[in-house]
Design brief:
By secondary structure, the chain is of the alpha+beta class. The chain is about 30% helix and about 15% strand. It has 6 helices and 11 strands. The strands form 5 sheets. It has a 3-stranded antiparallel sheet, with no helix packed on it. Strands 1-2 form a two-stranded antiparallel ribbon. Strands 3-4 form a two-stranded antiparallel sheet. The chain starts with a helix and ends in a 12-residue tail after the last strand.
Length: about 230
């Protein structure tokens, strides 16, 4: 039994169904029942080309899945769903390592790390000579802390060197002195904007209005929004 080119080159949903049926018949006629049809490229694949996802079972070839992951990764997606639009399962980064290039795998790992960091409370060491990024990985309210880099004590809540002898509320009131007011005036004069994620000031010296804070957050320097900005 044979099929014409017109029969094998149908397009659209109906054409896909016809082509899939024809391929299955051809596969059986060829005597390779263990082969499969990739649901993305619709090509007949040998068993060693099948992509295995631990959370779900779909007929995808490793080449198509690798290309799919690459597109998602360079769109800064961290949690990548199964290519099947009706599937709710996610792909595991480590399980996919062998089918990905080194740069794609490392980029995916970076995306996963960034997504974890952004949901944690963070602060920069208040010592100007250090300024290391410090995360609250334990959760809850944290006050007296020690920078793991410079070993100096600071207040995680107030984001300043440790205010010995003052409660945070008392120190906040003391901060409303002339020096604090002068700093606020300077920030206004320089048109500094606070980052919506870490609350630190960001200065835009030149270029477009979209800026990136050192914590990794992108936002509009005019309105401060991270998305849906309508500034012109």
């Amino acid at each position: 039994m044979s099929y014409s080119n017109s029969e094998l080159d149908q397009s659209g949903i109906a054409g896909y169904a016809v082509r899939g049926t024809q391929m299955k018949r051809q596969r059986l006629l060829l005597g390779i029942p263990s082969s499969f049809i990739c649901e993305i490229c619709t090509e007949i694949m040998s068993p060693n080309k099948r992509f295995n996802n631990e959370c779900c079972k779909h007929d995808f070839c490793v080449d198509c899945v690798a290309k799919y992951i690459k597109v998602k990764v360079f769109d800064d997606v961290s949690k990548i769903k199964c290519p099947d639009p009706d599937c709710v399962a996610f792909l595991d980064c480590l399980s996919c390592q062998l089918i990905l290039s080194k740069d794609v795998f490392e980029k995916w790992c970076d995306n996963l790390c960034d997504s974890k960091i952004l949901v944690l409370e963070m602060v920069y060491c208040p010592d100007p000579s250090c300024s290391a990024l410090i995360l609250n990985e334990c959760g809850g309210r944290v006050e007296k802390s020690e920078c793991p880099h410079c070993k100096k004590q600071f207040c995680f809540t107030c984001k300043v060197p440790w205010h010995s002898g003052y409660q945070c509320k008392e120190f906040a009131e003391e901060m409303k002195d002339s020096n604090y007011l002068l700093f606020e005036k300077l920030a206004k004069l320089k048109a500094w904007k606070r980052c919506p994620t870490c609350n630190y000031f960001v200065e835009r010296r030149s270029g477009c209005r979209n800026v990136r804070c050192r914590c990794g957050t992108d936002f509009c320097h005019i309105c401060g929004m991270t998305s849906l900005c309508q500034c012109s």
